[in-house]
Design brief:
The structure holds two protein chains of two kinds.
Chain A (H helix, E strand, L loop, with lengths): L1 H17 L6 H9 L23 H31 L1
Helix pairs in contact in A: 1-3
Chain B lengths: L9 H26 E3 L2 H6 L5 H4 L4 E3 L1 H22 L2 E4 L2 E3 L4 H8 L1 H19 L7 H24 L4 H26 L5 H33 L8
Classes of the chains: A mainly alpha, B mainly alpha.
Chain lengths: 88, 235
């Protein structure tokens, strides 16, 4: 279990530093065809996988990614805990 | 392939939201049934709950295996989330990233796998503004239903005729192409752009991204199975 979590964190950090920053398939198609502007820009706690007050991009995205991993793990862990508690 | 708000007509978005809720409800029920068992009488007696309670409605309790299944879902979700951050270059100025639908359903079965992808999409939308809110249903239909749920049955069908890793690869490629087609259809029907043009452009890119999805899925499934020995693919 621990090693999958560590692997996920490693992938997130590598992604933060080495992932391509080009638009993905859908964004590129929308750009080429000229309807990208129809998309509504939204902001959120960690918009574009970055922490608002950390300006070093790689570090910012690494932390955002790691937080995301723990939010997701927490969601499933909490579900298991809830079901177990309910069983008494 | 996360659609932002604005690309899809609100009526279509809400319709797909309804469809997504129905599919996820169905999958959640299936998973709940799989991870729990009817509480045996001994368990009640041991818990000192008295005989009267037994006459009431039967309760389902989480099994040991069920608990492990939920932890496995969390791990697959974390892995898919991290892997989706890794955009790889595809073509001039274009990148692609894993969807992970086939990865999830091969490791967890169709119901748990679909929930895992939907959970990742919901977290991405809420916390990272990756993919819209109103179009969340559309994104779930595209990537969790077509990309995971339906692709599972392609994988199962292919496995009868070809090797498992080959089935994973082909199903993964199909999952990306199906998700791209569904996305194109939604954009086209919304009147955002001509359906035929969007579909052709989307296919052209995602036929390539699908190849990467196939390779990464085969590799990550191997890695996951090495790291987490468990029964595979039980729903």
């Amino acid at each position: 279990m621990k090693n999958i979590i560590l692997l996920s964190i490693l992938i997130a950090i590598l992604a933060a530093f080495f992932a391509s920053s080009n638009p993905d398939g859908l964004e590129k198609v929308a750009e080429n065809l000229g309807f990208i502007d129809r998309g509504i820009e939204r902001s959120s706690a960690m918009t574009d996988y970055s922490i608002p007050f950390i300006y070093q991009e790689g570090i910012s995205t690494s932390i955002a990614g790691i937080l995301g991993i723990f939010i997701i793990l927490g969601l499933f862990w909490a579900t298991a805990l809830f079901l177990r508690k309910r069983a008494g | 392939m996360h659609i932002p708000d604005g690309f899809i007509d609100p009526k279509i978005s809400f319709g797909l939201m309804g469809a997504a809720v129905a599919i996820l409800g169905y999958c959640l029920n299936k998973v709940r049934a799989a991870v729990t068992a009817l509480a045996p009488q001994e368990a009640f007696a041991a818990a000192g709950r008295g005989i009267k309670n037994l006459a009431g409605r039967s309760r389902r309790v989480l099994t040991k295996l069920g608990e492990q299944k939920i932890y496995a879902m969390g791990m697959v979700a974390a892995l898919v989330f991290a892997a989706q951050m890794f955009n790889f270059p595809i073509d001039k100025g274009t990148s692609g990233h894993l969807i992970g639908g086939v990865l999830a359903v091969v490791l967890l079965g169709p119901f748990a796998g679909t929930i895992v992808i939907a959970a990742v999409l919901i977290i991405q939308s809420l916390f990272f503004a990756d993919g819209g809110i109103i179009v969340l249903g559309a994104n779930i239909i595209n990537m969790a239903f077509f990309g995971a749920f339906l692709s599972y049955y392609i994988y199962v069908f292919l496995k009868k005729y070809i090797l498992e890793w080959q089935s994973i690869a082909v199903a993964a490629w199909c999952s990306v192409v199906m998700a791209a087609l569904a996305t194109s259809l939604e954009i086209g029907l919304s009147g955002t752009f001509a359906l035929s043009v969007v579909t052709a452009s989307m296919l052209k890119v995602h036929i390539l991204i699908g190849v990467a999805e196939a390779l990464i899925s085969v590799a990550l499934i191997q890695v996951f199975r090495k790291m987490v020995p468990m029964g595979e693919g039980q729903p």
